[in-house]
Design goal:
The protein has about 600 residues and is α/β, with parallel strands linked by helices. It contains 24 helices and 20 strands. Pfam families: TPP_enzyme_C, TPP_enzyme_M, TPP_enzyme_N.
């Protein structure tokens, strides 16, 4: 049972005769006991009883979204920005299925998230009743667990169990589907309830022998790398990571999901690894003799062709989810445990190894520094006279600073945002990493702003992504959620277009969107922003960029949408084509760094 967010009333705990509540009242009371203060949702017939109860609440803020997917992503953004659980509410049938994309997204990225859905009367289930869908069955593969509640007496224990499952171990989404009759009927309300979760016992403390073995491998390593994944952020282990990295002197790489887990300005940070990672990070991993993976899952976007990844490296794999260990890359030292506790134990074990018994890594650092000098992160100015998207995103980060929150959509602008904004703290970077969900940015930024109202929140979006969920601007205007939206408008599905350019002989099949330079501008994003009651700005010249960003930062009475019209020919570099080894990284088009690992065949088929 969680303790930090379950303020229990002494009177309630001592009450001998339980209060009788409707199921809907039990849902509300349980959410209050769990410390939930904000929820995102959209009512419908099967969830009306709960909404009738929620209307009278003075402790829980409900944000009425314009689409259930928006509620789900807002709950994700809320959780990812704050570390607290996010809650989304929807009705049965299409209301529930509209949450599926966000649930899958949260599952891939280990986001603590509770989805509460209404269901048709229990007597109608299985009859193809109006707005009936088996949402428990639909979501079972993409949740940590899915519950169906048909008895109001079960509501407190079920929601408390959902909270525990969502927030402990490897975080993730849990769905609670409650029939309409369970919401309407009454039952004694018992708090705290007895929670029985057979088999659910997340291991947080690692085995001491494994810790010692990992420390010994590190002491013997001449070319180590700390490969840091999003699990370090989810576990709140960033301070422990910094202490361990500085004590060992090992280079650090942070994945797309871990940006901000280790400060970008720290001299030991090599950058982001993977398909669009920095050359030092990608080739540093590739030539390492030891990888200490912390809360990372050896995703294909990081490893490239898995059997060619880091061929000479031994692996210490730390993860709270035992299913991840050795799933893709065999772990020489598997460590099951919470990253925060494991890193503290590793630091103690490292301190017990005499400096004279530790391998010299000076030559390794000399090699890595050479890569940093020869292959700094940069970009080419467009030749068509239009704006460079990388420069715009870099200026957003520079003018706003590291205390802000940056939520991106998916595609080129996502990679540029990960590359060109400096992240100095956890929870500053929100994105859809595993699922790659277009439409994530605006509602996630909205949720983040609700969770962290005193921080500046940017949604850095593409013109394609923005058109999927921009209806949530209405939610932001009406609920006084003043996010800033930067549309990197290249008038196309940019990442798909880049792959078509590189791998399909420039056949740009169905990727033009008619939103940007010399097009019909359908829609006109400035007019769209104005229609929603937001401030709309268009930027087409370099000398307009800073003024537009500053105006956005100064405007806090409504959302701001900036239409940055950029070159459609700008590409994301560096790049490792899918299907080849990471030794085949290209620093820029037709420019591959020389490296002493034999180059792999550059014939991968992107998919």
């Amino acid at each position: 049972m969680p303790t930090e967010a379950t303020p229990l009333s002494a009177a309630a705990g001592a009450r001998r005769t339980p209060e009788v509540l409707t199921g809907s009242g039990a849902v509300l009371r349980t959410l209050e006991h769990l410390g939930i203060t904000d929820v995102f949702g959209l009512p419908g017939g099967a969830i009306i009883p709960f909404y009738d109860e929620l209307m009278a609440s003075t402790t829980i803020r409900h944000v009425l979204v314009r689409h259930e997917q928006g509620a789900g992503h807002a709950a994700e953004g809320y959780a990812s920005a704050s570390g607290r659980v996010g809650v989304a509410i929807a009705t049965s049938g299409p209301g529930a299925t509209n949450l599926v994309t966000a649930i899958a997204d949260a599952y891939m990225d280990s986001v603590p998230f509770i989805a509460i859905t209404g269901q048709v009367f229990s007597t109608l289930m299985g009859t193809d009743a109006f707005q009936e869908a088996d949402i428990v069955g639909i979501t079972m593969p993409i949740t940590k667990h899915s519950f169906l509640v048909t008895d109001p007496a079960d509501i407190p224990a079920t929601l408390a169990a959902a909270y525990q499952i969502a927030t402990t171990g490897r975080p993730g989404p849990v769905l609670v589907d409650i029939t309409k009759d369970a919401q309407q009927k009454s039952a004694p309300y018992v708090w705290p309830p007895k929670i029985d979760l057979p088999g659910y016992r997340p291991v947080t403390k690692a085995h001491g022998k494994q810790i010692a073995a990992a420390a010994q491998l590190l002491a013997e390593s001449e070319r180590p790398v700390l490969y840091v994944g999003g699990g370090v952020v989810r576990s709140g282990a960033t301070a422990e990571l910094k202490a361990f990295a500085e004590a060992t002197g090992a280079p650090v790489v942070t994945t797309l999901m871990a940006r901000g887990a280790f400060p970008d300005t720290h001299p030991q940070h090599l950058g982001m690894p993977g398909m669009h990672g920095t050359v030092p990070a990608v080739l540093g991993l590739q030539d390492s003799d030891l990888i200490i993976a912390l809360g990372a899952r050896f995703d294909d976007r990081v490893t490239g062709k898995a059997d060619e990844f880091a061929p000479d490296a031994k692996v210490v794999h730390v993860d709270i989810d035992p299913a991840e260990i050795s799933k893709i890359r065999f772990a020489d030292v598997p460590i099951v445990g919470d990253a925060k506790e494991v890193l503290a134990d590793l630091l103690d074990a490292w301190g017990g190894i005499a400096p004279a018994d530790r391998a010299d890594t000076a030559a390794w650092w000399e090699k890595l520094e050479g890569l940093r000098k020869d292959f700094p992160l940069g970009y080419a100015e467009p030749t068509d006279g239009l704006l460079a998207p990388q420069a715009i995103i870099k200026r957003i980060g520079e003018l706003t600073g590291p205390e802000a929150i940056y939520a991106s959509g998916v595609g080129q602008h996502q990679m540029w945002s990960a590359q060109f904004i400096q992240y100095e703290r956890p929870h500053a970077w929100l994105n859809s990493g595993g699922a790659g969900t277009m439409g994530y940015s605006v509602p996630a930024a909205m949720g983040a702003k609700v969770a962290e109202p005193d921080r500046v929140v940017w949604a850095i979006d593409g013109d394609g992504c923005f058109q999927m969920t921009n209806q949530e601007l209405a939610t932001c205007v009406i609920n006084d959620i003043p996010i800033k939206v930067a549309i990197i408008n290249n008038s196309s599905l940019g990442m798909v277009r880049q792959w078509q350019t590189l791998f399909y002989d420039g056949r740009h099949s169905f990727t033009d969107l008619e939103t940007g330079h010399q097009t019909r501008r359908v829609p006109d994003f400035v007019k769209l922003a104005d229609a929603y009651g937001a401030l709309g700005i268009r930027v087409e010249r370099a000398d307009e960029v800073d003024d537009a960003i500053r105006l956005a930062l100064e405007t806090n009475d409504r959302p701001v949408v900036i239409d940055f019209v950029v070159s459609r020919d700008s590409m994301v570099w560096p790049m490792v084509p899918q299907g080849v080894g990471n030794s085949s990284i290209e620093y820029a088009r037709d420019h591959a760094p020389s490296w002493d690992v034999e180059d792999a065949d550059m014939t991968g088929d992107p998919a």
